[in-house]
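User: Sequence recovery, please. Input:
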């Protein structure tokens, strides 16, 4: 029994199934943070190759800040998703699918662009990039009808959210993720 529990714990940690943050009782796992960070890092690495950009990609400070920004973005995505689930309910998946639906002609170009820019296949690109962006736009439209601004709503929601960061890298202060000293 001890061997099975030990193996289970090893794989649980090894594959990142442990939480790094809890947002209003929703988990962000280490694997989700690591996958998003890898995508963002790859994107910035491609952007740095552009002329006139002078960023030290290998510096520890840059990597920490990028990881912090990635966790902040995941928290905001979670808050937006939670709000839309309250407002829309079960129809959310269908609405998001309609929003990101694209023709088969564009599918080939989109798949190639996702692979080149982000290093993702089309399914992962839809899940990690397009779906959260669609949710953001849907919420922005709903808030516009109420004469509210999305950025103000996000600031208010992050301030009111119950966020617990479980990783020693960061802590939550005044509605944002902050690096530990």
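Assistant: Recovered sequence (181 residues):
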């Amino acid at each position: 029994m001890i061997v099975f529990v030990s193996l289970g714990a090893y794989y649980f940690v090894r594959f990142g199934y442990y939480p790094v943050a809890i947002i209003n009782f929703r988990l962000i796992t280490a694997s989700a943070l690591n996958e998003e960070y890898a995508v963002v890092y790859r994107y910035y690495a491609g952007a740095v190759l552009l002329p006139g950009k002078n960023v030290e990609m290998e510096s520890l400070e840059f990597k920490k800040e990028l990881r912090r920004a990635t966790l902040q973005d995941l928290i905001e995505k979670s808050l937006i998703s939670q709000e839309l689930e309250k407002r829309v309910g079960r129809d959310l998946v269908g609405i998001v699918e309609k929003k990101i639906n694209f023709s088969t002609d564009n599918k080939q170009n989109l798949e190639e662009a996702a692979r080149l820019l982000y290093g993702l296949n089309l399914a992962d690109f839809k899940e990690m990039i397009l779906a959260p962006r669609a949710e953001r736009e849907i919420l922005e439209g709903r808030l516009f009808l109420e004469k509210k601004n999305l950025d103000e709503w996000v600031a208010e929601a992050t301030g009111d959210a119950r966020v617990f960061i479980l990783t020693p890298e960061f802590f939550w202060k005044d509605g944002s993720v902050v690096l530990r000293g």
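The CA atoms of residues 76 and 154 lie 7 Å apart.
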